[in-house]
Amino acid sequence: MTCVPGEILYGTYRILDILGKGGNGTVYLARHERSGRLWAVKEIVKEENHLIMEAELLKKLRHPGLPAVGDILEQNGMLYLVMDYIEGYSLKELLEKEGVCSQEQVAKWGLQLCQVLEYLHTRIPSVIYRDMKPSNIMQREDGTLVLVDFGTAREQKEEASGDTVWLGTRGYAAPEQYGGHGQTGPETDIYGLGAVLYHLLTGRSPADPPYGFVPVRTLRPEISGGLEKVLWCCTRDDPGERYHSCRELSWALTHYRELDEEFIRRKKRRNLIFALCLAVTVAAFTGSRIMAFLEQRAVADTYRARISEAEGAIGVENRLEACKRAIFLEPGLAEGYRCLLHIFLEDGVFSVEEELIFREILNGRQDGGKSSLEQLQAEVEEYQSAAYEIGQAYFYDYEGVDGKRASARWLLAAAGAATGTGLSEQEIFRAEILSKIAGYYQGLDVQKRNGDTEASYEEYWTDMETLCSQELEERDNRITALLADRELTAGVALRAEQFKKAGIDSARMENMLSEIQGRLFKWKQEENSEYEWYLMQEVEDGLLTAKQAVEAAFSEIQGAF
Question: What's the CA angle centered on 292, arms 286 and 296, to 5 degrees?
């Protein structure tokens, strides 16, 4: 330690107290002499290269869940990193003071930390934190969390085969941090976050002997089996068996109750009924297309014959090949793209592998000319017709991340069609509704340079209310109305906290959920198809999750002092 209380650094920062000491140096509390603002000042020995890297790394980052760097100073042969002073308590201190946390609070904190880690992991290059533990997580007085101490963080290098130095805290550190197991990545931080949430939930530190994890419910039987599964998946020894991104983990933390055994059993029964109905439909569809193919087999080397071949050939590879040849023959016609999607969606899923094939076809060029997509866009009505099908496939069926964001441009193109030019009034209306929802998936998570998002949560809420109030069943059909209600409940469940910060009170959120629940009650008294019953159960489950999210957002902050 080289500074003492009362000393003034660089003629600007007066040292007030020592906040902490550790292997990475001393941290002081200081006050700016002119503004009076309090700062945390970390003392760094110039020879400590990894600490200098911490300072350089933090200078590049801007996120409300990270401490901002105000200055980097040099004095008396030492470097001083001036950072935001976070007033509050670490989660370690809160755990020691109040004991184990409720599963609702743990899930809420987990979602906040996922947002911070997702920001770090999506930098170019990715930033891997590598030292998740309760003492490195501060809770501000308003309840928000801040991740501190970046002494072990590193930027991920694609060409590296492994980390050069092992760093981290035993118990919270993933196996790959011990060296010889490849390079650390996003899955490393997911392991650490899982270990932190496990500690908060059970009170048992994985850093204490005998180390490791025992099933959560052996320590707290009242905890949701779904949440136990989420933490188990986070802390697998093999990185490939963990969640691959914080987006995936966020979804799991939001829907952990849906992973309970009883919920899964009920859903399996519903899915089995739906799958049987779908199988009958697909079999009938395939049989009719085979007949159509046989009737048109004589029409060789034409677009229609190739479409028929794609629809009726035996084997997925043969059908895809016929469909590709049809599209490359007439890339400006919508039917080939619809046929391609029908092949992809026969199992009810638009897979990541299928989406790669689809993009390859769209970007394909004949003899160096325009791409298939460019030629399709030149035929406006055909493009709008194809965009309607493509947009729905991304919106409802894509299994990868960001399906709704990817659907936005396609649905917007379909929504711009004129009635009678390829799409019906009902289809155009449906595209308008879905494009509105998808547009917010695009804008809400994209940060501008000033830290704001491209879309306003207040505007998003107003549009959700408008959508909720429209008579979608009368204007389109019950399935469209149910799909919209499913998205509305998901929007509240995922973003209740952000809506609250935008000034939306609990009464408005509860009113929307009550309106959806009222519709659901009315429809359940009437005759419905198997698929409509399936969607109703989805909406009902979504209502439960959304209500819990609203309750958590507006509950009193646990551990307020």
Answer: 145
How far is residue 377's CA from residue 384's CA, in Å, rounded to a whole number? 8
From the number of C-beta atoms within 10 Å of its C-beta (0-12, 13-18, 19+), residue 404 rates as buried
d(CA 48, CA 158): 25
Whether the bond between 125 and the residue before it is cis, its omega within 30 degrees of 0, is yes
Query: Over the stretch 309-364, which tens digit does the pLDDT of each residue have?
Result: 777 777 788 888 888 888 888 889 988 898 888 888 887 788 888 888 898 888 88
Distance CA(119)–CA(216), nearest Å, equals 29
Exposure string over 130-148, b if 16+ CB within 10 A, otherwise e: bbbbbbbbbbeeebbbbbb
474 conformational bin, left if phi > 0, alpha if psi -120 to 50, beta if neither = alpha
Cα separation values, 365 from 353, 356, 368, 376, 493, Å: 20, 16, 6, 12, 43
Gyration radius from the chain CA atoms:
28
Sign of the alpha-carbon dihedral angle for 107, 109, 112, 115: negative
In this structure, the chain runs to a length of 561
DSSP 337-374: HHHHHHHHGGGS-B-HHHHHHHHHHHH-BSTTS-BHHH
- Structure token pair of residue 5: 């209380």
Cβ pair 136, 193 in contact under 8 A: no
98-112, 122-136, 439-453, 504-518, range with the lowest pLDDT: 439-453
In degrees and rounded to multiples of 5, residue 407 shows phi and psi of -75, -20
Backbone phi, psi, residue 392, to 5°: -65, -35
- d(Cα 230, Cα 243) in Å, to the nearest integer? 9
